[in-house]
Structures are given as C-alpha cells and as structure tokens.
Amino acid sequence: MTDTSLEADGATALERVVTSTDANTLGRYWLGAGSLTLLASLVAGVLVALERLDLGGAEVFGSADEIFQFWSAYRVGLVLLAIVPIIVGLGTAVAPLQVGSDSIAFPRMAAFSFWTWLIGAGTTITGFLIDGGLGTPDAGSQRQAVALTLVGLLMVIGGLLGATVSLLTTIVCGRVAGLTLRRIPLFSWTLLVAGTFWLLTLPVLAANAVLAYVDLRGRTAVRFGAEDAIWEQLSWSFSHPQVYAFALPLVGIAFDIVPVSLRNRLANHDVVLVLTTLLGVVGFGAYAQSFFDTPGTPVMYQAIYVVDAFAAALIALALFGGLADTLRRGAGNLGSGAGNRPPAPMVLSVLAMLLLLAAAAVGALRVVDPFDLLATSATGAQMTLTMGAAFVGAMAGTLWWGDRIFGKVSSQGLGLLAGLAAVVGVLMIGVADLLSGFMGQNDFTGASLAAAGSPDSGVDALNVVALVGSVLLLVGALGWFANGIRRLTGAAAPADPWGGHTLEWAADASTVEVTSERPLLDALEHAGSAS
Amino acid sequence: MLTTGFKLWFGIFVAAFGAAVFAGYTSGGDETGPLTVAWKGAVGNHVSYGLLISVAAVAFGLALFSIAFRDGDAEAAAELLGTETAPPAQRPVGGSWWPIFAALGVGATAVGAVVHPAVFVIGICAVAAIAVEWTMTNWSEKLSGDRAHNAAQREKLLRPVEIPVLGTLGVGVLVLAMSRVLLASSVNGAVVVATVVGVVVLCGAIVISRNPNLPRGMVQGVLLIGFVAVIVAGIVTAATGEREFHQKGGGEHATDTQSEDGH
Hints:
The complex is a heterodimer.
Chain A: H1 13-19, H2 23-52, H3 64-98, H4 107-129, H5 143-173, H6 186-217, H7 230-234, H8 242-247, H9 249-261, H10 269-282, H11 303-330, H12 344-366, H13 378-406, H14 412-438, H15 459-488, H16 519-530
Helix pairs in contact in A: 2-3, 2-4, 2-15, 3-5, 3-13, 4-5, 5-6, 6-9, 6-10, 9-11, 9-12, 9-13, 10-11, 11-12, 12-13, 12-14, 13-14, 14-15
Chain B: H1 4-26, H2 46-68, H3 74-81, H4 98-115, H5 117-141, H6 147-184, H7 187-210, H8 216-240, E1 245-247, E2 258-260
C-alpha cells in the first residue's frame, strides 16, 4: 500500500468516490444514501398501514411478530437511517460554507463515519429483512437476525456520532474572524444545539442496544431481561421528547430561508438562538425510559415529562410566531421576486414549521392524563408529525442549498409538488392516528390486534386515512428523490440564485468582513449607501 | 502571561475543588479527608465528592493544556514555528483509503460477533492493522510541507513491515484457496488444474517481464482478477467439499498413500 493521500489527478473515478474526504462530496453521499433508506422506511410504513386496515388478523405479514418487526423498522428507519442522516448530509455540505471553513473538521473521520453508518445501515436492514429486526426471539424472530440488527444499529449510531463530532467541531473551531457564535447562521446554530444533544443521547441509545445484545447472546450467563423487550428499551429515541432533538435543525433551515426570500432581516435573531436552544434542552429524551421505571410514579407520569411536552408546544408556538412576524414584515418584498410567487423552499419551510407546531400540540395533548393517550397511536402521530416536519424542512433545505451543493439546478415546481404531497401525507397520518388514539387504538396494533379497535369504533375508517397519508408521503419522497436525480443532469446553477445573506453564498468567505449575522447583506447595503 | 483559557479552566478547578471540600465537610467527612482526596481520612458522601473532584481534575488538566498551547493562538503558533505568518487553521487533506477500510473492518468485527468467531477475529486484526497504518500516515503527513518527502518517509518506515506481512498473507490465502481446489478435484483433474495454473502464472510472468512498458493499471487489474478468481474458486470448492479418500491397505503396515474412489 503506497501513500494513501490520493491526488485527484492520478486516481481513478472509483478511487475518488470511495476515498473522498471532501465535505461537499460526503454531504452528497449522506443525502443520497439517506434518501434511499427513507424510501425503504416509507415502504415499510405503507405496508404496516395496509396491515392496520384489517385489525382482525395478520393479512399482509405472517404473524403479529412480523408486523411488529416492520412497524419498528419504519420508526427506526425513518429516524436513524433517513431523517437524521439527511440532516447530517445537509449539514456536512452546508455548515462548513456557512462558517467560512475550507473543509470539515477531521475530514477523514467524517468519511469514516459515513462509511460506518452505511455499512451499519445495510446490516440493520438485512437484520430486519431476515426475520430479525427488533422483534422478540421467543415470539418468532430469528435470534441471530435480531443480534445482527442490534450490531447494525450500533454501527449506525457510531457513524452518526462521528459525523456529529466533525460537524460540531467545524462550527465551533472553523469560523472565520468576526463570526462569533451569536452571528453564525441559524442552520449551523441549530445543528450545533441539536448535535450537542445527539452526542448526549445517542450513546445512551447505544448502551441500550449493547444491553439487549448482551442479554440476547449471553443469556445463560447474564439475564437483564432486555431480550424480551428490546423495543421497549429503545423506544424513547423515537417518541416525545427525543424526536424534537432530531428535528431541531429544521427550525434553522426555516429561519435561514425565510428572511432571505423576503429580502429582510430577522428581527429577533438572539431570541431565536435562545428558543432553539430551549427546544434542544426540551428534546433531551434519555431520561424518559419507561423500561427502567422504578417503583413509584412511572416516568411518563412524572412532572418533568408533562412539563417537557407543554414547554415544547410553547417554544414551537413562539418560534412559529417569530417566523410569522418575519413573514408579515417582509410580505411586501415578495413582489420584487420573479413571478411574484414565494419561492418553493420558503413555502416548504413555513409548512415544516407548521407541522412542528402541530407535532408539539399533539405531544402536549398526549400527556394530559384524562385523555389517556400515552399508549395509544397518538404516540405515533406525534412522532410522524415531528419527523415529517424534519423531512419537509430537509426538502426545503435541499431545494435552497442544492444549487450550491450540486452546482446544478433542479425543478422548483417538482420540488414544491413533492413537498406538498409530503405535507398532506404527514398531516393525514398525524390527524388520523391522533383521533384513533382518542378512540383507544394501541400505538402498536400487532402486539394486541384484538384490543386495537373494532370495526364499529370508527378506527378502521381513520386507518384508511392514515394509509392514504402514508402513500402520499411515499409519493412525496419519490418526487423529491426524482428531483434530486434530475438535478444531477441539470443545467449549471448560478453561484447565488437567492441573493443570500450568509457566507455560504460568498465567492470567497475569507475576504468578507463579518460584523453581523448577515455579512453579505451588510456588504450589499454598504455598497448601496456608498454609491 | 496567563492566557484567558487558563484563567477560565483554573477558575472552574478552584470552584469545583472548593465545592468538593465543602460537600465533604457537610456530608460527614473528617478534618483532613476532603482536603487530601481521601488519602488521610473520610470524605463524606462519595458520589457528590467524587463528581466534584472529577470536574476539578478535568478542569485542571484543561487549564494546563490551555497554557501549554497558549489557547491555540495563531500568533503564538507562528512564533513557535519561526514563521512570519500564522499557519492555516487546518491543512486540506487528500483522499484516503483508510476511512472505508476501517469501516469495513468495523463492519466485519460487528457482523463477525454475530455470525462466526473467525470473521470477528479477522475484523479485529483488520481494524488493528488499519489503525497502525492510518496513524503512521497522519504522522508522516506532518513531517514537512512536501508531500513526496512525507510519503517517502512513511514508506521507508512501513514498507519493511508491510511487504512481508502482506506477502505472507497473500501467499497463505492463495495456497489455502488452491489447496481447496486441488482437494476437490479428481486425481487427474488436480494434475490438470495445477499444470494449467502453473503454466498461466509462468506465461503471465514472461509477458510482464518482456514488456516493461505495459500500463501499470492493466497489470494490476489482471493480477487482481486472478487473485479474486483463485479465492472465489477456493471458497466455492471448500463449500463443495473434498473428494472421497480411501486408505490403501490397512492394519499395522498400512501406508499413508491414498487413492480416489475407484482407483
């Protein structure tokens, strides 16, 4: 093996693909791989929704355990194999540019993280497909396949953690002179906050997986009791409040896109910094592990859990209020744009914030004791709305920064249509699952098919709505993916199609004087006043 | 002069140590225990004392780092290096095989933990070897600003290890794979296979040696294809199993010659 530092000129195309440590390239890898796993996860979601149409038995799958495997595959896939990687990809490509850094920090570790995640994702999916997943061995799942899923999950978590460390170090240490933490663009800021909480919580999830794995493989020697309840141990990562920490960067995406689209400044930049930090704090979910409930009040009934839910709703409301205020103040500027229409990324980012608000509202309703929603499908509604909001935010982000990342244009119209389909789909799932929850439908229908509902309860009709929503969400994701593929063969993109305010749109960030959070707008205004 | 970073971390150290001592005295510690980190006497509540002392120790370490490296100040670094301008915060790095190799090693280890101990051990060995190689690559890249010189230094150090180890591994794998092929073939078939492979290797070597200007990529490609073909054949024939063997004769004076069924 010769020197492993490959010069681009002497390397073959394949060598350049697998050896790249370039932030932009790695970002594209994350986005591409994340979008493929997103499609796979959504297909699993559609199949589970189809199964729910007939609660009398397992029609699509062979048994309740298989339904459970796909149901958990949908949630794990949506969060750890799709949405978070897509956000990491967007961050890897955009955050270094936003802070004016030449490259991502620890570029080789960033590459290692991606490949580790990719191999882990493949292993996890294989585990799910060979009758393993997060099922219970005693209920029919293959023991070795379950173990394979768990080690795959560990690699996925490891990969995400490594990528997060690279990202956070870039944001903190790679900033150009004058770009204080208060002045960094809000997408980078929310990545910083969210990433911090990912670093605090993902190792806990990894520890849960290790515990389950040890119990599974060394049952005769140790018996933690985790083997019989693997999902119960991991479920905190895929429900309130942890999902807020995963979805938080969507707020940064929205607050980066909207003011630029409206040619306006954000009135309360510092308030947004504080509110997003608070949402990150609220999204710390490692404590909410009902599996480890001790005698006394279960964690889901404790004050902190309830306060958390209401705090998230209030913060989401305040953030949406800030965005609405910016929209109100800048509405007059929309006419100056091409065609007098709001750009597609702006529309989608506002809708993503609305979905987040809806998710937080459902989260608050869920913890109200008299409603008795904690174990119902309202849990799924809150999760789908939150992660759906993150997905729509990511769609807006890729439409917004895609020209910069790929250097080629895509169809804004197709992007908007795909986004609208996803928004409608997420809303249909969320509303249907919330109402089903009020009617007593379990969060997981496979565990107790008979108890999940009855044909007369109205749940069946709502499950049809949820199925249609799942299909629409899948259609939206397919449209987004197709638009991404079209972009690869699109025309060359202009350097700054939006008239951006922040450093990622600068031709050379090192020459820009940074005196506020919008240095390019400052320079433009300065030039205008000088002339 | 004390740097800002040092002042911050040292301040945290003082505060945490003071808090630990206070916690020790107010939770049942004796006169000397909280001050001597339990070397002489009791510290009271172990959890709170241990936590606060840990914070103090980490802060003290970071304070030392901060002052040792002058808070990572670029001007100080330039002064240390004897240059007029500060070095770039981060030098761009080229592509590298190690990330994907390391990920594959980690993957083999993880999957091996579930599937088969041999795969697990291979994964561990791969990860260890890659860790050494990756570390040495990083070390060599910081030797000077000249990439060629750095690469030469790295090769000078590692080639005497890499070539024998990789050569031994390569030969071992090839011999193992070929032996599986020969053992699975009939007696006459094994002779034919060994002859054909030997002739192909000999002819290939003659062609390569008589045409030193052959494209390097083509030679590498042909060798890679041949290597992979032998390994795949070895795996397939190992899965098929050996031909049947029958001992000739028997009893006390039996020879160890073997014959195929029917001979």
